[in-house]
Amino acid sequence: RVGMDDNFFELGGHSLLAARAVMGIRERCGIEVPLRELFRCQTVAELGPNLAGYERGEIRDGPPQLTGAHDEQPRLWPNGTVAIRTGDRRPAQYLLTGSTGFFGAFLLDELLNQTDGMVHCLVRAPNAGAALDRIEANLQRYGLWQAPRQARIRAVAGDLGRRRLGLDPQEFDLLANRVDAVYHNGAQVGGMFGTRHLHPVNVGSTRELLELSTTGRLKHFHYVSTTSVAELDSSTSAIEVSGYIETKLRAERMARSAAAQGVPVSVYRVPRLAGESRTGRYNEQDIVFKMLHWIIRLQSVPQIELDEVWIPVNEAARVLVSTGRRHPQGGRFLLTADRRVRLSDVMDAIEATGEIATPSLLGNWLADLWEVSSEDGEVMAAILNPAPGTRKIRVDNLPSEPARMTSPNVDFEAIEARGVDHTTLRLYVEHLRRQLQAVSTSEGQR
User: Fold this and answer.
1) From its phi and psi, is residue 263 left (phi > 0), alpha (psi between -120 and 50) or beta?
2) Could you tell me which residues come within 8 angstroms of residue 281 by beta carbon, excluding any fewer than 6 positions away?
3) Which among 46, 74, 296, 302 is placed 20 to 30 Å from 438, CA to CA?
4) What is the pLDDT of residue 387?
């Protein structure tokens, strides 16, 4: 039985199950509850009181905004003195977060390729053995597992959302005295989760890792941010942002503040990470690649704006690690590419493989998708065509920092990587086609 205070997502819920839940409320109660509301109110106790308002067609405001005061700053130099940096040990040792995610797999691969050191991977798991199993499974998923390198991977069972990363004080200090650099890539990702839900992992972990970086030896702290924070970072008025973007900027500013206090910090703003450039393997949670999957299956393309920088994930990881190694004192870096990807490029790549992609109005395309997969239709509609009442925030609600930026990506050094060209786009399309054919064959054999 599910209790009133049991958290939907902690019980194993995800976006498709959330979509099924709001459709059930619609069918059984006749109440139109936006999908985003279930991400905001994650228990029956939280959601129940709001149903009457939605029954009357009222649009509720988002949760109260967090202020800069909510971002407890890291306790740098916890021993009371400036840690002496002795980064001349060879081979060096590294701490990596997020190694069981998409980008994390390729960052781990590049750290193993470009260095001779040990990589300590902090993973949410009950013990080190289970953590190592998760790391290996993720590397296998993307074709990166190499058994001879296992001796250089040390799994650390922890939790980014907890104090001291879920480690006891002795484990925390031992890890701090072992590693020479921290690569903080781990985050809770989700365009519909609210700021308060994401804050412990996305911001709290940054605080804990900065404290670890100044415990014992002074360490080079590498923070993986996103280009999506640039608009909010430079805005002078309230703008619509997701909880993910807000928490990423809060964490980035925390890291930049530590840099102003003498910590060697590198911040990397990364654009959309596209599929691997040799195999086409991609992030199945990426909304644009999910849309590409449905474009191919429906043989129609929604008329939306798409004009972005894409970098193949393996290329982004290579460039990030090599950039950090060239700048031991830190810096601010903007990963960019030699070309952009537009919707017309995607359509050309689809047609080059012999597929059909007929232009369709967004509303019609979503209706067609809903007929095939109502859960995916609900999720895609919530992201591509959000309802009124989207949370707005002013940059004044965020913690300030010395020399505040005044325009997007100012003071960030542009690092150009190989982007996604027509050949790579076609590779992605062909990979997606093979996946769809495999699913079709499997369903036909049942």
Assistant:
1) beta
2) 141, 142, 143, 275, 431
3) 302
4) 53
**Count of all residues that appear for the chain in the document:** 446
In whole angstroms, what is the distance from residue 89 CA to residue 86 CA? Answer: 7
What pairs with residue 142 in β-bridges? none
Mean pLDDT of 7-17: 73
The share of the chain scoring above pLDDT 90, in percent, equals 58
Task: Give the per-residue pLDDT at 397.
Answer: 56
- 186 and 226 Cβ atoms separated by less than 8 Å: no
Write out pLDDT tens, residues 80-111.
655 555 545 566 899 999 999 999 999 999 99
pLDDT tens figures, 226-269: 999 998 888 777 777 788 899 999 999 999 999 999 999 999 99
